[in-house]
Specification:
There is one protein chain. By secondary structure, the chain is of the alpha/beta class. The chain is built from five helices and seven strands; from the N terminus they run E-E-E-H-H-E-E-H-E-H-E-H. The radius of gyration is 15 Å and the shape is globular. Bound molecules: ligand AR6.
Length: 185
């Protein structure tokens, strides 16, 4: 599904984010930036050891050894990936909704797009952040993810943004959310 948002394009596709040829892909990382399972593990495997080394450097230098907090984002090179850049963000762990999970999830998408623009990136692929290991209910996460990206694209000349959904089930949930959002626009 492909939609124009102002001068920008927003697309929903099923696929593997590690194969995307957008200038940047987004990683649903954890605060350590040292890799993990799910999409994070797949990105580190495909990017190679040099990504882990760069992440360690970012952690030590940019973050002064601290963990990356939920909603924040940092950028590295893509190394062996087709994408030139990886923007690492940390989604919130779902604990029922009373720990500002919705706001933190929106911040992930907004901060990733801001960081992309600061680095002159004009095309980006997002996974469905927090809806795997971090257990954010996907119906709710899809609305927040899409509304945040749509709002950003309405306000900025960005280029191309895609959501890469890992299953047909996830794709259909995002598609339904997108249709509702577009009807309300
Ligand atoms: N391409 C696109 N989407 C994928 C891929 C892929 N190759 N692999 C998985 N997904 P998750 P989270 C989907 O668990 O919930 C890690 O261990 C997956 O089906 O990867 O934010 C980190 O290190 C799901 O829809 O991320 C953290 O500890 C979505 O990506 C923690 O998991 C997100 O699932 C982050 O949890």
């Amino acid at each position: 599904m492909k939609t124009k948002i102002s001068e920008n394009t927003l697309e929903l596709v099923t696929g593997d984010i590690t194969e995307q040829t957008t200038e940047a892909i987004v990683n649903a990382a954890n605060g350590s930036l040292l890799g993990g399972g799910g999409v994070d593990g797949a990105i580190h495997r495909a990017a190679g050891r040099a990504l882990l080394d760069e992440c360690k450097k970012v952690r030590a230098e940019t973050l002064s050894g601290e963990e990356l907090r939920a909603g924040e984002a940092v950028i590295t090179k893509g190394h062996d990936l087709p994408a030139e850049w990886v923007i690492h963000t940390v989604g919130p762990v779902w604990t029922g909704g009373s720990d500002k999970e919705e706001e933190k999830l929106a911040n992930c998408y907004r901060n990733a797009l801001k960081l992309a623009m600061e680095n002159n990136v004009k095309s980006i692929s997002f996974p469905s952040i927090s809806t795997g290991v971090y257990r954010f209910p996907i119906e709710q996460a899809a609305v927040i993810a899409l509304q945040t990206v749509v709002d950003f694209l309405e306000e900025h000349p960005f280029g191309y943004a895609a959501f890469i959904l890992f299953s047909d089930h996830d794709y259909r949930i995002y598609e339904a959310a997108m249709n509702r959002i577009l009807q309300e626009e």
